[in-house]
Amino acid sequence: MKLKIYFSLSLLAAILSFAQEKKVEKPKFNQELATSLGADQYGMKAYTMVMLMTGPVKIEDKVKMGELMKGHLANIGKLADEGKIIVAGPFLEKNKENYRGMFIFNTRSKEEAEQWVKTDPAVEAGVFSYELLPWYGSAALPLYLKHHKEITKENP
To answer: YCII-related domain: from which residue to which, for each copy (predicted)?
Structure first.
């Protein structure tokens, strides 16, 4: 019995000792990067989120609807390439608000975000309507796009 207790205490001491040795150092603050990304003192910044919702127009013609969706995706790619859109994607489940997808635009200006969202052919056609919301998130968010391209095998 004493041997079991001794063994258990020794094992616990070893685990605690190992855990203390694995302290993770805080990354060094990079002022140049923070400034280039527009970060505040918390590493955050303001963006504009766009919630895309089912619009008033329903298009039954599958070919026309396919063309609109192709244009919708192409427009997202164009805005991303221009650094205007940093997050975009559809919702995977139907919901009571009729949200279909969302964008996060790299601007705090609702007016600018509205100009950008109106370049979407599906919005222009009334298939999607939208709501603009101010959002506060990590200033490093735009950096993921570079890596997203590295892990994408196919584009829809």
So the answer is: 64-135
CB 139 within 8 A of CB 39: yes
- Taking the C-alpha atoms of residue 140 and residue 119, their distance in angstroms, rounded to an integer, is 26
- Tokens matching residue 40: 């505040």
**Residue 50, by phi and psi: left (phi above 0), alpha (psi -120 to 50) or beta?**
beta
Q: Which of 32, 47, 34 is nearest to 133 (CA)?
A: 47
Topology (CATH level 3) of domain 31-151: Alpha-Beta Plaits (3.30.70)
Domain ranges (residues) in the chain: 31-151
Tokens 């100009």, residue located: 115
Whether the predicted model's global pTM rises above the 0.70 cut: yes
19-77 pLDDT, tens digit each: 555 566 778 888 999 999 999 999 999 999 999 999 999 999 999 999 999 999 999 99
Strand partners, 89: 102
C-alpha 148/C-alpha 131 separation (Å) is: 26
Query: How far apart are the C-alpha atoms of 105 and 156, rounded to whole Å?
Result: 21
DSSP conformation class of 4: H
Q: Which of 95, 3, 113 is nearest to 50 (CA)?
A: 113
